[in-house]
Amino acid sequence: FFFFFFFQAEDGIRDAQESRGLGDVYKRQEYGMAVGCRMEEDPEPLIAPPEPMAHIVAGVQSRLIEAVYPPSDDTFLLLEALLDDERQIHGARLCMEIGTGSGTVISALGELAGPGAMLIATDKNPDAAQFAEGTMRANGLGNGCVIRTDLASGVRVGRGVDVLVCNPPYVVTPPDEMEGFGISISWAGGHQGVQVVNQLLPRVGELLAPGGRFYLVGIEENLPEQIVNHMKEEFGLEGELVKRQQIGIEGLWVARFIKPA
Question: Is pLDDT above 60 for 18?
Answer without folding.
Answer: no
